[in-house]
């Protein structure tokens, strides 16, 4: 039985995964599943500064995960492809569960860098 073809990673895929790697951006995407929201709605819900929310929305918009609809002086943000995003997040959940381990970057962040060690 042939194995499923795996898409060849490229810069677009890396950009998408970078956008999805930030917990706040994932929370914004989850919140937008319920429908369109203004920045001020997201600020209130997340308890973050307006500039922080705007920065994350710009990242999500730049990589095509979020769209924006102007209305008067407000901008309404929405999921650009809700069904595809749900599929991606569902596949990610299945991958995490299927491996039997909890992925962690802790070992990468906490490991001492041998090139930075000083001689005693």
TrEMBL record:
Pfam families: HTH_5
Protein name per the record: ArsR family transcriptional regulator
Keywords of the record: DNA-binding, Transcription, Transcription regulation
Record PROSITE patterns: HTH_ARSR_2
GO molecular function: DNA binding; DNA-binding transcription factor activity
UniProt keyword DNA-binding present: yes
Domain of life: Bacteria
Occurrences of domain HTH arsR-type (ranges): 5-99
InterPro entries (UniProt xref): ArsR-like_HTH, HTH_ArsR_DNA-bd_dom, HTH_MetalResp_TranReg, WH-like_DNA-bd_sf, WH_DNA-bd_sf
């Amino acid at each position: 039985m042939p194995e499923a073809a795996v898409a060849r990673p490229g810069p677009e895929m890396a950009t998408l995964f970078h956008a999805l790697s930030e917990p706040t951006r994932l929370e914004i995407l989850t919140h937008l599943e319920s429908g369109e929201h203004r920045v001020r709605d997201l600020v209130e819900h997340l308890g973050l500064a307006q500039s922080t929310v705007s920065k994350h929305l710009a990242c999500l918009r730049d990589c095509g995960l979020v769209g924006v609809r102007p209305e008067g002086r407000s901008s309404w943000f929405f999921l650009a492809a809700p069904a595809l995003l749900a599929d991606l997040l569902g596949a990610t959940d299945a991958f995490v569960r299927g491996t039997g381990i909890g992925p962690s970057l802790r070992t990468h962040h906490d490991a001492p860098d041998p090139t930075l060690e000083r001689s005693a």
